[in-house]
Every structure is written in C-alpha cells, then in structure tokens.
Design goal:
mainly beta, 2 helices, single chain, 131 residues, globular, four-stranded antiparallel β-sheet
Length: 131
C-alpha cells in the first residue's frame, strides 16, 4: 500500500522557519518524483517544489525560490522541505505527492509541478505563518 505521511507543520511567526518531512512507503522510491503542494483556504492547490528521486533534479515555484529548499534522503525514503523566511501568504495545508518518473517521461521536464503527474497524495500538514 502506497503511503505518504507529512509532518513538521505548525505555527510560526513571519520570518521564521519550518522543515516539513514526507515519509514514503509502499513503492520503489527511486522511480518516483516527489512534489510538495499547498492549498490555502478558498484557493486552488498549487505546486511548490519538486524533486526527482532518480537524479536529484529540483524545481520551485517562483513564489518560494530562494526561500524554500527541497531535499531527499533516499536511504530513508523521505523528502524534506526546508522553509525559511516564511511569510503570512505561505499559510496553507502542505501536501506531498508522488508520481512515477517513467510513466510521465518528458512531462516532468516540461511541467514538474503539474498535479496531473502525481498519483499518490498524503493527508497534508498545516502551516500557519502569523504576521
């Protein structure tokens, strides 16, 4: 059974930091891309960051570039999202998701943060940034 379990969310003041974790199980981790998405109240779910578990390539939404860093520990089947310089507009439920690298092929290069390529989703973790 595929499982993605997020942790590390919480309440933080603007300018602070949090590190989210996504623990994966039930699939061949190295064959998948892991993405972080977020959804604020009343808004659509948006892609935040992506990492290929195969070659370590990464991608970020413009809104988080320079502030967020995604990394992967393949030995632990875990992906992290280090979030620094947090802003109130980063407040959202953060989800990790997994998509098969070889099923979607070149689409990962074209749009790595497209939700269509992610087949498995976690339950989410709340991040709240106070001003």
């Amino acid at each position: 059974e595929v499982q993605l379990v997020e942790s590390g969310g919480g309440l933080v003041q603007a300018g602070g930091s949090l590190r989210l974790s996504c623990a994966a199980s039930g699939f061949t981790f190295d064959d998948y891309a892991i993405g972080w998405f977020r959804q604020a109240p009343g808004k659509e779910r948006e892609g935040v960051s992506y990492i290929s578990s195969s070659d370590g390539s990464t991608n970020y939404a413009d809104s988080v570039k320079g502030r967020f860093t995604i990394s992967s520990d393949n030995a632990k089947n875990t992906v992290y999202l280090q979030m620094n310089s947090l802003k109130p507009e980063d407040t959202a439920v953060y989800y990790c998701a997994a998509g098969h690298l070889y099923t979607y092929g070149r689409r990962w290069r074209e749009d790595p943060l497209s939700r269509e390529q992610y087949d498995h989703w976690g339950q989410g973790t709340q991040v709240t940034v106070s001003s």
